[in-house]
Amino acid sequence: MDTGRKIIIVVMDGLGDRAVKELGYRTPLQAATKPNLDWFARNGTSGCMDVIGPGIRPGSDTSHLAILGYDPFTVYTGRGPFEAAGVGLMGKNGDIAFRCNFATVDHKMDVLDRRAGRIKEPDTGELVKALDGLEVNGFEAVVKEATEHRAVLLLSGSGLDPRVTDADPHAVAKVQTSRPLVPEAKRTADAVNEFVRRSYEILDAHPVNVRRRMEGLLPANVLLPRGAGTFPDLEPFRKKHGLAGSCVAGVSLIKGICRVCGLDIVEAPGATGGLDTDMASKANTALRELERKDFVLMNVKAADIVSHDGNARRKIEVIERLDSMAGILKDGLPEGAAIAFCADHCTPVTRMDHSGDPVPLTIYSETSIKDGVKSYDEVSCASGALGRTRGKDLLPIMVDKVDRSKKFGA
Amino acid sequence: MDTGRKIIIVVMDGLGDRAVKELGYRTPLQAATKPNLDWFARNGTSGCMDVIGPGIRPGSDTSHLAILGYDPFTVYTGRGPFEAAGVGLMGKNGDIAFRCNFATVDHKMDVLDRRAGRIKEPDTGELVKALDGLEVNGFEAVVKEATEHRAVLLLSGSGLDPRVTDADPHAVAKVQTSRPLVPEAKRTADAVNEFVRRSYEILDAHPVNVRRRMEGLLPANVLLPRGAGTFPDLEPFRKKHGLAGSCVAGVSLIKGICRVCGLDIVEAPGATGGLDTDMASKANTALRELERKDFVLMNVKAADIVSHDGNARRKIEVIERLDSMAGILKDGLPEGAAIAFCADHCTPVTRMDHSGDPVPLTIYSETSIKDGVKSYDEVSCASGALGRTRGKDLLPIMVDKVDRSKKFGA
């Protein structure tokens, strides 16, 4: 194992913002008190970063692929495979993953409740066992429960094609027949329909549902796939960047992306992917992980959550908690390490959704050139010596900062 | 029709410049008084923009294609089709457009005057009628008069190829035989030569020329094509960017580019494309147009004209008139709109022609982050939070600023 200098990338989800009138046309980052993040800005080198490209509005999946050094325009095949990988279901290239809902249907396959009375563990785990390993039209179906009423379905076998429509009607309506969008996808669509039919056949009479009906609960008597996506054929992270890496994240989708890229997923006690997450635990877990790894990607979701609610004041509070987390990272940073603070995208509180604005970026290592930037925020960072960079360039830059880059030429 | 937030891009043609000795090594923008442009710089976010790429010296056609979000390296096929579209002659992909001069020749086809005694309307309009609709070697020729002694020729039909040389000798010399530059262009070159022959046959005895000779004027007895270009197959602007758009411009070439991209062309009363243009009228026309459209591109030519003359003092005067126009736009800007001020290229007064220097860019909307830039000029803008951007990224950035961008990923 390489024992070279270490790299951490801290992705503060949805952190970047725009000028907010109620904050005197400052951004939440400009309005917050954040001595630790500002320490990194003062002692590091800053810039702004188009995570995917100028004006391009990233999803959390495409943005993390870019930050991990992959080109999302080439490798992104949809969210399904990452959701599957997020609950530990890894396919190989060519396998197709679907996000699924447990739902309640009547005998005419009319959906009565898309969430089967908000069924959850342990019932979903029991029901999944009855479906996992089914063979449908020559493909193998692997099924795993996810959060609440959700599950993931993985079809594997030769000749699959993800260009099929959803069985989930996305409404209280009749279960849809999956249709091929191209002729080559006919076998896949047929398999989806057969899987839905078999799921009803098996689940409707399942002891869990017999019990639920007796208790006055809605039965989860069908599993409805949507969002087909092929598992992408990614160059493993270690091979691509020469780093053994881990991911510390609370959100399942982010874990899934990192797992598909070949990072190890480390659970931080108390990390939830929610506002109640234990940020200190995440920082400490990341630092511990760096004792045996070269690279850690941290994702903290909280700023994105309050931004989607449009709440500038709560965003400032979250930033101040993120700053305490940055303080732990500052105190525990391994000697010679390089650390980057960034976001996967902006989520302006005025937009209440992702935007394509560039995100603030600060990279710190002991040898960082000091560019006079004094604050970690959208405006100050943009005046820094890193200028305007791209997400997919971040990892090569970080690898070079810790003197692990290969020479191109002689 | 979408009634989302609006976008204006104001292209101040040839505005950017270099340090001018007689201005104490300031640029004309640095030397001018321009409170309104500076207001946008103070309240918006600024940067500098390589309209095509660093060091690449744009034409007005390639630069406007880039600003409209198209890649000129892929789509640009020559100026001819845009000149044709500028006078209202739209071809389809595969048609070939030529710029033409009415000229005076003797019976040996020696050019006596390349501008036929500076003939103009209404004579050119009369002569064009005699040529429009001719069939030459199986192709249809559509002819339309343009400004002064100019006209445009459109050949349509199957198997055309623009790789042919000009019939116009570009000098007082013999009319050139158009030659194919590749074997596939032979039929096209033959058609050009046949068209020139027929134009002489028809025009030499035309009553307009009989009259001109009697009045002691040179006859316009031939039409000489040059600058063959295929009509490009552009993705319509509305489909590409999701915006219904219009163009307010005085110059025919700019109108042509916008028309080919699928923008509507709106005439502003008093807009001439010259120094005498009514800039207030242009601003008011653009604002009125935004009441029913999503997007307006404005082009004002004046700064480019004085720059080609090398006159720094007059450039400052033009800038001060442009600033008044910016004041009208400031007062009338629709709520939630985003506006960009830029140039299509620099035209340094010391060079008296276009240069490849980046142009100053300011983008303003209410939620713009305030980056401390206080003046709209080449130096101040370059220190702004937008950093160094590219022309083709401007429209995606603007679309995102008004929250109309699509998410890439989930």
Structure notes:
The structure is a homodimer of 410-residue chains. With 410 residues, chain A is of the alpha/beta class. Chain A folds into two domains: 7-76 and 233-401, Alkaline Phosphatase, subunit A (3-Layer(aba) Sandwich); 83-230, no CATH class. Chain A is 33% helix and 20% strand. Chain A has helices spanning 28-31, 35-43, 60-67, 72-75, 80-86, 123-131, 186-204, 207-214, 237-241, 252-261, 279-289, 302-308, 312-332, 378-382, 394-401; strands at residues 7-12, 45-50, 57-58, 96-105, 111-113, 135-136, 139-145, 150-156, 222-230, 245-249, 264-266, 295-300, 338-342, 359-364, 387-390. In chain A, the strands form two sheets. In chain A, strands 11-10-12-1-13-14-2-15 form an eight-stranded mixed beta sheet, sandwiched between helices. In chain A, strands 4, 5, 6, 7, 8 and 9 form a six-stranded antiparallel beta sheet that branches. The radius of gyration of chain A is 23 Å and the shape is globular. The mean pLDDT of chain A is 96. The interface between A and B is medium-sized, with 38 and 29 residues. Strand 3 of chain A pairs parallel with strand 15 (407-408) of chain B, so a sheet runs across the interface.
> What is the residue-mean pLDDT of chain A, rounded to a whole number?
96
Secondary-structure class of chain A: alpha/beta
- Elements of chain A, N to C (H/E): EHHEEHHHEEHEEEHHEHEHEHEHHEEHEH
In the CATH hierarchy, the third-tier topology of the largest domain in chain A is known as: Alkaline Phosphatase, subunit A
Q: Main sheet of chain A: which strands, in order across?
A: 11-10-12-1-13-14-2-15
The count of strands of chain A amounts to 15
